[in-house]
Amino acid sequence: MDTQELYRRGLAVRKQMFGADAVDKRMGALGEYGAPLQHMINAYAYGDVWSRPGLERKIRSLVVIGMNAAINRAAEFKVHMNGALNNGCTPDEIREVCLLVALYAGIPAANDAHRLALEVFKERGIDV
Amino acid sequence: MDTQELYRRGLAVRKQMFGADAVDKRMGALGEYGAPLQHMINAYAYGDVWSRPGLERKIRSLVVIGMNAAINRAAEFKVHMNGALNNGCTPDEIREVCLLVALYAGIPAANDAHRLALEVFKERGIDV
Amino acid sequence: MDTQELYRRGLAVRKQMFGADAVDKRMGALGEYGAPLQHMINAYAYGDVWSRPGLERKIRSLVVIGMNAAINRAAEFKVHMNGALNNGCTPDEIREVCLLVALYAGIPAANDAHRLALEVFKERGIDV
Amino acid sequence: MDTQELYRRGLAVRKQMFGADAVDKRMGALGEYGAPLQHMINAYAYGDVWSRPGLERKIRSLVVIGMNAAINRAAEFKVHMNGALNNGCTPDEIREVCLLVALYAGIPAANDAHRLALEVFKERGIDV
Amino acid sequence: MDTQELYRRGLAVRKQMFGADAVDKRMGALGEYGAPLQHMINAYAYGDVWSRPGLERKIRSLVVIGMNAAINRAAEFKVHMNGALNNGCTPDEIREVCLLVALYAGIPAANDAHRLALEVFKERGIDV
Amino acid sequence: MDTQELYRRGLAVRKQMFGADAVDKRMGALGEYGAPLQHMINAYAYGDVWSRPGLERKIRSLVVIGMNAAINRAAEFKVHMNGALNNGCTPDEIREVCLLVALYAGIPAANDAHRLALEVFKERGIDV
Fold first, then answer.
1. Which residues in B have their CB inside 8 Å of a CB on D?
2. Helix H or strand E segment including A83
3. Does the predicted model carry a pTM greater than 0.95?
4. ipTM > 0.90, yes or no
5. Which is the most buried residue in B81, B121, C36, C79, by most CB within 10 A?
6. Do A99 and C36 touch (CB under 8 A)?
7. What is the Cα–Cα distance from C120 to A68, expressed in whole angstroms?
8. Minimal Cα distance from C36: which residue of B?
9. C-alpha to C-alpha distance for A92 and A114, rounded to whole angstroms
10. D32-74: per-residue pLDDT in tens?
11. Are D55 and E103 in contact (CB < 8 Å)?
C-alpha cells in the first residue's frame, strides 16, 4: 500500500475516534514543524496498527489508557480517554483500568489517572 | 468483609488464573519474609481489584500485559502472559497489545515484549 | 480484621499525617467515582502498610518522598512533603533526600524535587 | 583541581550555554536551600562532565534533549532546548531527535517533545 | 512511496548499520509472530526516520544510545552500541554519552550503560 | 577542597559501606574506560553527598533502596542492599521499604525488590 493511502486511512480512523475538529486542532498545533510526526501518527499508528483487525477498538483503548497512565503521559492519557469513550468504553470500565494502574504502576499513577479521567468526564458533561 | 476472607477469595482467583502449582511456587519463593507482600497480592490485588465485576478477566489481562511491557517489568509480564492465556486471550490478541506497546512506549519495549511472549509460548508448547 | 475497620484505622492515620481538612478535600475531589481507589488508599495503604510497626513514620516519609521524586509524580510528592513535615522531618533532612535523588535518578529529577519542596515550604510559611 | 575552581569553570560554561541572566534566575529560584544542588550542577555537571573534551557541545545537547524527552522531564527539556540552540543546533536537527524519541520512547513522548520545542521556538521568536 | 519499498529501503539501512547476519538473526528470532513488528521496524523506523537526511547517522546513534540507557532497555542499548560503532562512533565518544547518562538519568543508569558498553567492546575485540 | 581529596574521602566512605574487596572488584570491572565514572561516584556521590552530615547513613540507605526498586535498577539495588545491611539496617526495616515500593511504584516493583533482597540475604547467609 502507498504510504499516502496509509496516511488517509489512518487519518479517517483517527477522526472517527476523536472527531474531525479535535484532530484538526491537534495537527494544527504542531504545524509544519510537526508534519513528519503527524505522518508517523496518521500513517503508522492509525493507518497500520490501529487499523489491524485482531482486537476491537474498545479493548485497544482500554489498553492504551492503562499504558499511558502507567508511563505518566497526562496529555496522551486525556486524548485517549476521549477516544475510549467514543469507542464505546464506559466510565465504569475505565475506572477498572485505573484501579489496575494502582496495582501495577502504583497509587500515585492511579491518583493522577482518576483526576485526569474526571477532568475529561467534566469536559464532556458526563455525570459519574 | 474480613481480610482473611478477602485473602482466601483472592488466592482462589489467583489459582484459577495461574494454576495452583505456579501460585504455590511463587508464594514459596518469597517465604515468610514475603508473607506481608503475598497478603497484599492475594487479599488486595486479587481478592479486591481482580474480583470486581466491572470488566472481564480477559480484558484485564490484556491491559495488565500492556502496562507491564510499558514499565519494563519482565518477570511480571511473563506471569501475566500465562494468566492472559489461561483467561482466554489468544496469541494474536496478545500480539496486538505488543504492537500497541511499540506505539506508546517505544520499539525497545515492544521488542522485549515480543521476545518474552515467545518464551512463554515455547514454555507452554504453543505454536505461533 | 474487617476491611471496614482497616479503612477506619487507615483514615485515622491519614488524617494524623495530612490533617482532616486536606484528606477530606482530596477524597472529595475524586468523589463517588474514586471511592474504590480511596478504599484502597485508606484501608490498604494507610490501614495496613503505613500502620505496620517496623519502621517509624518519619523514615517512611523520607523514603516515599525519594521514590515519588524518582518516578516523577509531582502531585504525590507534594502530598508527602506535607506528610513528611507533619511526621517530624526537617527541611534539611528533606534536602538530603533530594540530593540523593540527583545521584540515583538524575539532576532533572532533583531539580523538580527542589522546586516542589520550596513550593510546599512557601505554602506553609516555612522559611528555609 | 579545587572544587571551587571546578564550580567557577562550570558556571562559566553554563552561562555560555544558557546566558548569564537565565542562569542567575535559575540559581536564584532555588535560593540558599538549593545551594548544594547548584554546587553539584555547576561543579560536577558543567565543571566536569560538560567540560570534557571528547564530544562537541552541540552533539551533547542533542543527546541530552533526547534523554530528557524520553524520561519525561519537561522543565529540563526546555532548559536544554535553549542550550541546544545556543550551542548551534538547528530546529531541523532538534526535530530529528524528537522523531527518534517517537521510535525509542513512544509517540506520547514525541508529542510532548514537539509541543515543548515549539514553545521554546515561540519564546525565542524562531519561525519554524 | 509504497510501504514495501519503504520496507526494503529500511532493511538495507539496517543491514548497513548492523550487518546482514545480525539483522537476519534478530528477525528470525521473532519469526512469523513478530513479522508485523519487524515491518514497523524496517519500514517505519529505518525506512522512514533513520533514512531522513537532517542528521548524520553517527549523531543519531549517540542520541539513541543515550535514550536507551536512560529508559533502561539493555537489549536495545547493546544493539545500538554495535550500530554506533559501525556508524563511526568511537568508544571515547560513547563514553561521553554514558557520562551524560549519569547526570540526567542517574548513576545506576550510567553504571549499567558502562557495563553493557564494555560487554560489546569485548564481544567485538575492541581494546579500551 | 581539592577533588582528589574529595575522591579519597569518598572512596573511604564507600569502602566502609561495602567493604574494600567489593569496591575494588566493582572499580576493576569498569577498568580504565570507567575511570571518569568512578571519579564521579567516589568524589561526588560518596565524597560529597554521602559525606554530608544532615542525615544518618542508615536512613540514606533505606531511601536509596526504595528509589532503586522504584526505578527498576536491579544491580544498584543489590549493591545498596549490602550497603544498607552494613549501615545497620535490619531485614525487617528493609522489608518495610519494599512494602512501600508496592504502594508507590506498584506490585511488580515490590516483587522484584523482594526477590533481590532475598538473594542478598542468601549470599550473606542471613536467615530471614
1. 102-109
2. helix A74-86
3. yes
4. yes
5. B81
6. yes
7. 28
8. B49
9. 12
10. 999 999 999 999 999 999 999 999 999 999 999 999 999 999 9
11. no
